[in-house]
Amino acid sequence: MKQMERKEILKRLTLKIKAGKPVIAGGAGLGIVAKMQETAGIDMIMAYNTGPYRMDGVPSFVGHMPYGNCNRVTLELVDILANRLTDTPVIAGAGAGDPFLDIPYHIETLCRRGASGITNVPTVGGKKAGALKGPVRDDMEWNGFGFKREAEMIRYCRKRDIFSVAYAFDEEQVRTLVQAGTDIIAPHVGGTAGGMTGFEAVSVEEAADKIQRMYMAAVQENPDIIVLCHGGPLKDAKTVEECMKLTDIHGFIGTSALERIPVENELTKIVSAFKATHLR
């Protein structure tokens, strides 16, 4: 695949936005998903440990549980995706909360393996991030392995001129991550609704209101920041377009919406069509 420098990715995305076109990024937990997304012209492929879990038919939050090493899962996924794509940047997740992780070494390793950028997944930013809430989250923050460490990772990326995408759950987190130097801020409004393993979500209007508030916090820190929405009721093109009409955002990052739900829907239709055939 073609590994891209930060300035090249930014140039591509900025040109799209200036042309009035949304930036669309998609999660891929399998090589075939990434190939089809690239064929359709997606702007970025998000590679992080929740993807393989989704493709295994379980909810994304399982990726926040202690059932596997998130950073090892992502390294393996980057190896797969980097060899399936030709002209689409792979943005790799990194679990900064791992107390045994050497952040600079790990980021450089991801880039050597084919990643063109880094994002903070799994993140402890959300109040409902699987097991990482309540006392567990408090203990991580107290011991220095919480959200501040994610900001440190984004700061390192900017220092090294490595492209970065950062998920945030409220205005304070937005300001922290934009100040750290992220190129894209992604207001996260919860687990994605819809499909077999979807989450309960607020209305599009409620999500848009929260996203716009985070957008305003972001542009106050950096007028040139790119803002992409994610999660909650934003499960398909219709709901995303509704959100874009209610906000000033620049596009969308879809994981379940651009891998899990399409696979569920299309396979159901195709298998049903085969079942409806008749013998001679």
Report on this structure.
With 280 residues, the protein is an alpha/beta fold. The chain has a single domain, classed as Aldolase class I (TIM Barrel, Alpha-Beta Barrel). The chain has 11 helices and 8 strands. Strands 1-2-3-4-5-6-7-8 form an 8-stranded parallel beta barrel, surrounded by 7 helices. The longest helix is centred in the last third of the chain and has 18 residues, at 204-221. It starts with 5 loop residues before the first helix and ends in a 5-residue tail after the last helix.
What composes the largest sheet? 8 strands, parallel, barrel
Backbone CA Rg: 18 Å
Helix content: 40-55%
| Overall 3D form | globular
By CATH, the architecture is named: Alpha-Beta Barrel
Main sheet strand line-up: 1-2-3-4-5-6-7-8
Say what the CATH topology is: TIM Barrel
Number of helices: 11
Low-confidence stretches: none
Structure summary, number of beta strands: 8
Q: Helix/strand/pairing class, anyone?
A: alpha/beta
CATH class, named Alpha Beta
Query: How far apart are the termini?
Result: 47 Å
